[in-house]
Amino acid sequence: MATISIAKQHRLSHKKAKDAAEQIARDLKSRFSLEYAWSGDRVDFERPGVSGSMHVTKEQIRLDVALSFLLTPLKPAIEKEIHVQLDRLLGPAGKSSKSTKA
Prior knowledge:
The structure is a single chain. By secondary structure, the protein is of the alpha+beta class. The protein is built from two helices and six strands. A six-stranded antiparallel β-sheet has the order 2-3-4-5-1-6, with helices on one face. The longest helix is centred in the N-terminal third of the chain and has 19 residues, at 14-32. The chain starts with a strand and ends with a strand.
């Protein structure tokens, strides 16, 4: 099972950061049929082959995703798209840290 972990710093208010996370969750739902639910500052999502969570703090958004064996070949494309979406919503000023396992 492959995993993707990305933490992106932001300079948004906590509410605006949560709004950005909600936009990402809605986009994931519409594009990939992922179901999601909020629990405080964390949104959990899943569909067959993919599960994960996004945690919003006042300084960063952290995304952790687990991909099934069948989706492992798509990991680079998925990871790239996550970065694009986070950069678009949080702005380029944010610093990113990345940790992945194959």
